[in-house]
Structure formats: structure tokens, C-alpha cells
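Exam revision sheet. Question 4 asks you to relate a sequence to its structure. Input first:
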Amino acid sequence: EEVRRGVTHWDGFGAYTGNKLDVFMTIAAQSEVPSIRKLVKKHDPNAFIVVSKNLKVHGGFEKRLI
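Answer key, C-alpha cells:
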């Protein structure tokens, strides 16, 4: 809600540890990454975050100019 982005959620598990975990994925503009990273770390300081540059997205992605 704070960054006005949708998110996809999967129930996951660590392949090495077997521990259950939640996996969340969202697509955002590069300019949104710092605020999203800060928000995620606020809620989960141990979160593993992947940022991929030059990603091509096709489909129902709503592009917002910021």
C-alpha cells in the first residue's frame, strides 16, 4: 500500500535447510528501489532482496512515471 505496488506471494522452502519461508515478488521502477528496500528492511531486517537491472516486463505491468 505504501508504494502502491502489487506483489506476488509464494510459499517456499530453503532447498538446503528445508525451512519454510515466504517469497514475495514485485516489479518496480529503478527509482522506487530505495524506498521499497527501506520498507522491506523495516518489516524484515533479515530479508533477502534481489534487484535486477535491464529487466524486460511484458503483460499487465502498470508503468508509473515518478
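Marking note for examiners. The first strand starts at residue 8 and ends at 13.
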